[in-house]
Write a structure and sequence with these properties.
The complex is a heterodimer of chains A (276) and B (434). Chain A is α+β, with helices and mostly antiparallel strands and 276 residues long. Chain A is 16% helix and 13% strand. Chain A is globular and about 60 Å long. Helix content of chain B is 65%, strand content 3%. In chain B, helix 3 crosses helix 5 (132-161) and helix 8 (253-286) runs parallel beside helix 11. The two termini of chain B are 20 Å apart. The chains are: A alpha+beta (276), B mainly alpha (434). The complex binds iron/sulfur cluster (SF4) (3 copies). Residues 71-74, 77-79, 96, 113, 115, 117-118, 146, 201 of chain A line the site of one iron/sulfur cluster.
């Protein structure tokens, strides 16, 4: 079985909002709505840190991090369980999706989602330009919509738009059921959190913080599972502490996929025309 | 219940000038409500005060209130029947009528909250039985039908005697009366658990949600039952006093006082006991010093909290507890009104506690989904705020007016009381002899 998941490396994230904007473009998200938001963990305002400067007796405790937040594609998704008409459902590959033909617009799912990941079309959705953008049909007034993990791209073997367009390679998409996938290995190797873990929703989105990972390995807009050549990513020696290789050993190193030495995963430029 | 000498009365024999004015007012409110709903359907729910961060508002708050209000009448009329008692017989039919009107109002209040009302049929074609909303849909429907059946069962023999078409061809016979008594017992036996289920399931709509603050609490369902008892009985008392005053409906003063006492007990259980049970563990766990625990336990947070506990709790409780006051009709009436109003604020508070605070409130926050123009130039919010718009208020008032209209029609066309000798009437100032 496949279970799509996303790992977001908050240490790599530079807060550029590229994922938020590409999501809006790709998915034709109406004006006034965002499926994907880059939040600032720190001060009161966007792009401001908490704490004080280390000068004039200040505390020197400045701190700031970005937390890109979209639908977490929860395994135990409350939004799926509350939807009275089966409009919100979990696909076999773990993606939580909405059937806009069925949705009656009761917004129970919005009450259920602890992450405020869902938005509702309060009026006739407006798009700029008017004919819309990207590859997804516009949703009508009166339904709820949200991040789909770009299921239309995933179905064609492509990584989600926000993943491909992240200039910091901070977003890694892949199959959590496949132990040798990059996402599985990162979750194993780095300190990862799920948002609001205590709610028991068990999201398929994980956040790395603390130590920086090598980021997204592949160089094309194809999903990792679609790349038939061996992943150029080295899971071993350059970024990961060396004792890791000995201690965790065989389970996490995915043996045959690894490449010797300190090869840089993103040496070749991504293919152009990544829109489709 | 020896029906031979018995006859029945309707509360309104014909509408007087005041009655016509009342009907006119209700019709005007309903018309305004329909117009407002029409406007909302064409412009979308943008016409309401709800946005992505606060996505349920007045309609759901009032839905919660009216589900609760629908409890009182049915319980007051079916509980004695279940125990083969004639107590509160004079309130039985009016009670079921009020319950029926309230559950209809509650059901209708969901319609304007739905983004695409045209798709409601999906409830039948594609239901997900995991959803508490599906359970609630089922139980509200069942409860409505049960009320309708019960009202008809209670009155059909009098309807038949009056030759009303509402008897639907039913004939008043000796054997039929015997059968009706058995049917009433069994209907009462079904009605009580159905009422409990209705309020629990409505509570579980909220209580199952992990993402909305205080909603996620096992106490919500019992609290919903308690507040249904309080507000439902409160409304029944309000309506009976009004009906006594303005129509031929007659209230037995002794029974009214006795129901007032019961309301006081319900209030004490609900506002004092259950609330304390809900708050103490949190106050204790969150604070260290004795006085910190106590003050957190006793002192609430929002204005809705105070409106509910003091105006809707402590004050009416005191009114119903003080011996010199509690026998006066005006006192019972006022206390009942306050109990209903307090319960309304409790529902409002419940919805607010779910949406006021966002679990993840980092800047810039949640996109609101409104236009860039409007009150704020910003599309972001990190906390929930909500004020209903005129459209929402007009739609809600229209639906409530429809409920009042149903009650009024019921008072006109349904024999609401029997006037034959019943034990309870003997105490009523000798009205029988006159
Ligand atoms: S993040 Fe929210 S919308 Fe997405 S699956 Fe979880 S509960 Fe549902
Ligand atoms: S708003 Fe739509 S998707 Fe959400 S719970 Fe209601 S019907 Fe389901
Ligand atoms: S996966 Fe697709 S829909 Fe989800 S946030 Fe990224 S771009 Fe948006």
């Amino acid at each position: 079985m496949t279970k799509h998941g996303l790992v977001i490396d908050q240490e790599r994230c530079i807060g550029c909002q590229a994922c938020a904007v590409s999501c809006k473009q790709e998915n034709n998200v109406p004006m006034g709505q965002f499926w994907n938001r880059v939040l600032t963990e720190g001060g009161e305002k966007m792009d401001t840190p908490s704490g004080g400067y280390p000068e004039d007796g200040g505390s020197g405790s400045l701190d700031m991090q970005y937390q890109p937040t979209a639908c977490q594609h929860c395994e135990n998704a409350p939004c799926v369980k509350v939807c009275p008409v089966n409009a919100t459902y979990t696909r076999d590959d773990g993606i939580v999706e909405i059937d806009y033909d069925k949705c009656i617009g009761c917004r129970y799912c919005m009450a259920a989602c602890p992450y405020n990941a869902r938005v509702f079309n309060w009026d006739e959705p407006e798009h700029m330009p008017e004919e819309g953008t990207g590859d997804v049909e516009a949703r009508p007034q009166g339904v709820v919509e949200k991040c789909t993990f770009c299921s239309h791209r995933v179905d064609e073997g492509l990584d989600p738009a926000c993943v491909v367009n992240c200039p910091a390679d901070a977003r890694i998409f892949g199959d959590l059921d496949d132990e040798s996938s990059t996402v599985s290995k990162y979750i194993d190797k780095y300190e990862t959190d799920q948002l609001l873990e205590d709610r028991g929703t068990d999201p398929n989105t994980y956040y790395i913080s603390g130590e920086m990972s090598p980021g997204r390995p592949q160089t094309s807009d194809k999903m990792e599972s679609e790349l038939d050549d061996v992943s150029p990513w080295s899971d071993g020696d350059d970024d990961v502490p060396s004792e890791e290789a000995d201690s965790v050993g065989g389970e996490s190193s995915g043996s045959s996929h690894s490449v010797e030495g300190g090869e840089i995963p993103y040496a070749t430029p991504a293919k152009s025309g990544g829109d489709d | 219940m020896t029906a031979k000498t018995g006859s029945s009365r309707v509360a309104i024999s014909s509408f007087s000038g005041k009655g016509k004015l009342w009907i006119g007012l209700l019709v005007a409110l309903m018309a305004a409500g329909i117009a407002a709903w029409g406007y909302q359907v064409t412009t979308g729910l943008i016409a309401t005060g709800m946005r992505n961060v606060f996505s349920w508002g007045l309609y759901i708050m009032m839905f919660v209130l009216f589900v609760g209000l629908s409890a009182g009448g049915l319980i007051i009329s079916s509980a004695p029947k279940f125990f083969h008692s004639h107590r509160y017989e004079g309130f039985a039919r009016l009670g079921v009528l009020v319950s029926l009107a309230c559950i209809i109002v509650a059901g209708l209040l969901i319609l304007p909250d739905i983004g695409r009302p045209g798709r409601i049929y999906q409830f039948f074609t594609s239901p997900d039985f995991r959803s508490p909303m599906v359970w609630d849909f089922g139980i509200v429907l069942l409860y409505g039908l049960l009320n309708l059946w019960y009202l008809w069962l209670l009155t059909r023999r009098d309807l038949a005697a009056r030759g009303s078409a509402l008897a639907l061809g039913f004939k008043d016979t000796e054997a039929g009366r015997e059968r009706d008594r058995t049917l009433m017992f069994w209907t009462a036996a079904v009605a009580l658990p159905t009422a409990v289920a209705l309020h629990s399931v409505t509570g579980w709509i909220f209580a199952t949600q992990v993402g909305r603050g205080d909603w996620f609490s096992p106490l919500v369902a019992p609290v919903f039952i308690a507040k249904a008892l309080v507000s439902g009985l409160g409304l029944l008392l309000v309506v009976s006093v009004l009906a006594d005053r303005y129509t031929n409906f007659e209230v037995d003063h002794e029974e009214l006082t006795s129901l007032g006492k019961i309301l006081g007990i319900f209030l004490a259980f609900h506002v004092v006991y259950l609330l304390a049970a809900e708050r103490l563990p949190h106050a204790w766990a969150d604070h260290f010093e004795f006085w910190a625990i106590m003050s957190n336990f006793l002192i609430g947070d929002s204005v809705y909290f105070w409106l509910w506990t003091v105006v809707g709790g402590a004050v009416p409780l005191a009114m119903l507890a003080l011996p010199p006051l509690r026998k006066r009709v005006s006192v019972i009436f006022t206390a009942s009104v306050l109990a209903v109003v307090g319960t309304m604020f409790e529902g409002i508070r419940l919805v607010f506690t779910g949406y006021e605070v966002a679990n993840i409130d980092s800047a810039p926050g949640i996109s609101l989904g409104g236009e860039y123009t409007g009150i704020t130039t910003d599309i972001w919010a990190t906390a929930g705020a909500y004020t209903p718009t005129l459209v929402e208020i007009a739609v809600t008032l229209g639906i409530i007016a429809f409920g009042a209209f149903i009650v009024t029609l019921g008072l006109k066309y349904v024999p609401i009381q029997r006037v034959d000798a019943e034990p309870s009437y003997a105490t009523d100032g000798g009205k029988q002899d006159q």
